[in-house]
Specification:
Pathway: Cofactor biosynthesis; tetrahydrofolate biosynthesis; 2-amino-4-hydroxy-6-hydroxymethyl-7,8-dihydropteridine diphosphate from 7,8-dihydroneopterin triphosphate: step 3/4. Helix content is about 20%, strand content about 35%. By secondary structure, it is α+β, with helices and mostly antiparallel strands. It has a single domain (about 5-140), classed as GTP cyclohydrolase I, C-terminal domain/NADPH-dependent 7-cyano-7-deazaguanine reductase, N-terminal domain (GTP Cyclohydrolase I, domain 2), CATH 3.30.1130.10. Helix 2 (about 75-90) packs antiparallel against helix 3 (about 95-105).
Length: about 140
């Protein structure tokens, strides 16, 4: 049986759920320099972008076993971060939504991942706010 992520009023719950065979893997505060935005100066000059990633991942050992203590059996958060970093630095992207979607879709390339939530924040855009950005969610059908 393939575990499917739970959905609530606000979308994916991204919580570990042994009964459904899911674990929650995340990367928080990945800070990169990226050319992101619709204005000319954003195309020319990289700016600080903060990325957050939440993954619903199939846990083959759940609900009552311990899996083999090997990196190959899990989604490697180092590779998750590297994927996001590579995509963010690949060239100019006009919309934060587009960047988040590209990251989410790339991560869904791993069959163990059933759902992805990606946040993209631009903390240095408006002088009177902490951050602006977007969160997108993509699931495997």
């Amino acid at each position: 049986m393939v575990a499917e992520p739970r959905h609530g009023a606000r979308g994916m719950t991204f919580a570990p759920d042994a009964a459904r065979g899911l674990r929650h893997v995340f990367v928080r505060g990945l800070t990169v320099q990226a050319r992101l935005g619709v204005y000319a100066h954003e195309e020319l000059r990289p700016q600080r972008v903060v990325i957050g990633i939440d993954l619903a991942v199939r846990d083959e050992a759940a609900p009552g076993a311990e899996g083999v203590d090997e990196l190959s059996r899990v989604v490697d958060y180092g590779l998750v971060a590297a994927t996001a970093r590579r995509i963010a630095s690949a060239g100019h992207v006009r919309l934060a939504e587009t960047l988040a979607e590209r990251i989410a879709l790339a991560l869904l390339g791993d069959d163990r991942i059933t759902a992805v939530r990606v946040s993209v924040e631009k903390p240095d855009v408006l002088p009177d706010v902490t951050s602006v950005g977007v969160v997108v969610e993509r699931t495997r059908f």
